[in-house]
Amino acid sequence: MKRIPYLLLAFVFFMSCKNEKETKEVIKVQYPETAKVDHVDTYFGEEVKDPYRWLEDDRSEETEDWVKRQNAVTQDYLANIPYREKLKERLSKLWNYEKVGAPFIEGDYTYFYKNDGLQNQYVIYRYKNDADPSTAEVFLDPNTFKEDGTISLGGTSFSKNGKILAYSISEGGSDWRKILVMDVESKKIVEDTLVDIKFSGMSWYKNEGFYYSSYDKPEGSELSAKTDQHKVYYHKLRTPQSEDELIYGGTPEQKHRYIYGGVTEDDRYLIITPRVSTSGNKLLIKDLTKPNSDFVTILDHTDSDSNIIENVGSKLYIMTNLNAPNQKIVTVDASDPTPENWVDFIPETENVLSPSTGGGYFFAEYMVDAVSKVLQYDYDGKLIREVELPGVGSAGGFGAKKEDKELYYSFTNYVTPGSIYKYDIEKGTSELFRKPEIDFNPEDYESNQVFYTSKDGTKVPMIITHKKGLELNGKNPTILYGYGGFNISLTPSFSITNAIWMEQGGIYAVPNLRGGGEYGKAWHDAGTQQKKQNVFDDFIAAAEYLIENNYTSSDYLAIRGGSNGGLLVGATMTQRPDLMKVALPAVGVLDMLRYHTFTAGAGWAYDYGTAEDSKEMFEYLKGYSPVHNVKNGTSYPATMVTTGDHDDRVVPAHSFKFAAELQAKQTGDNPTLIRIETDAGHGAGTPVSKTIEQYADIYGFTLFNMGFKTLPNQDFKD
Question: Which intervals hold domain Peptidase S9 prolyl oligopeptidase catalytic (predicted)?
């Protein structure tokens, strides 16, 4: 591939037709040449060209060279934004406050997570249970794993007596994990590292060992090759991994894409939840008190999401959406646990239930139009009280061990930084435990929920947050953020990056699109497979609402989303390129004909369907697949695609191919760039330093392409 100059700058000035906007500086970009190949796939007799198929090879020198050249163009462009460094400085300053997690007891120690401010990764501290918290010492510091913070801490799991810790690490943001086992008293590693582990928890059986899940190492690149058969293993403490016992998933009959194993708190039962997709699971149970006992099948189909959340002896408490789209809890005896014997314990309501247990009680958290409501029940199903929350927003963390007398929960919303409250389980009283000291005043901002009408008449909620007193003149820079998939709910939460945006006079709007979980299984299913267009229509209608009500206009609107939300942005900008000024698809699923051929992508078929399912499904997917719907001669919004070179959840080839299509077919002056983070994955564990740099680039790019020569608000506090 021929090398060409990275960036040609041409400064073009123009005035809007009403002379309302400042002259805008346009940077003409000359993109790196992207080779095309004559690759064709045939689906149900129809040939589909894939000219950038070579970019799927993440191990090739050609792909590596393309990534370097694209990043060079992007960084050259961003260097011309005059306030990029100012945004980075402000992000760093606001980010630099102490963040402390809720304490939790394991064995003789109380532990908590803490970040001094700008540390790349959170550090685990501890103190003796009867000691003053001021005596806390560093227990495990992931910042020491690698100097640049690109090796992060994944999960942690303590043995039942708290004397041994198993913890996982991720290198470069990959979903592949290693597990290390530590003696907590000496802080020394006590055995060889377990390797090649993916999509796994670590669930201890007594103090003897733990269950985990993984796949066989795939052929080809571990960052993109398909992983299809998940397996559950038992690792006995201080034995080599080669001797780990295969528990479930090793036969063709037991083949599933995701299988998780967990032990009940009393060590009596092993619970197995095999899944073929991200929605729906089978449910099996094994009595660990009986040597060589067989698994008992509770559910032999994947028509529901069901799991055992508690047991008292052989009495099981099962959370399920089987014939209950908004979830309920049922009880049944383990001796005969199939659904015909289930008895309602906490029945289904009109709101979606997310239960937890602690201190001998059940806590039923409900979403009421995406806002938290929490009820406390005893083990007989009697309502004890509604938990009085600090305000309107999102509460979480109502979980504790059975013997605990108190628990800690978090509370946040779009204008309230996350605070921790201590809850007396018997008395039902809350007290503020820790409030962050942050240079942000919630009283200066407001957050309001509206309901708008989508294309087919469906009412959709949206929360709009901005500075108080903001003039609705259609000129406010606005980010419309969405997800709309996989039963995931977007509930109000504070974000440092959003605070910076709103500090600049920006509006941050979040609609609760179909495909999410805000209104249960029916709401989720209404945005899946051949109903996926509902999600895009909901998002488009949200943008139109903001414009019609003068919050913003197309010249000041940016759309943003990640992963499935990246698909949302890609589909919306290709269907309605006129609607927004800036598009920001992050780590997106953008090639809908091939997503299922990479890593664990086939497990997303419940939401998407696949191009092999049927001619109708193929045509539907091709009809909105962003990679396949970039049209020649179209003026697309200013676009910055973002991804990570170690993203093995949604492989970066999606973003590579989409960016290549845009660069080849874009008409007009709007830039179409791709920013590829190195040693970074799908997002989890990304070092703070990289996150700050990324958001400075994203916000700088967005405001610059909305025509701002200077920051809307330059009155930063020193």
Answer: 492-703
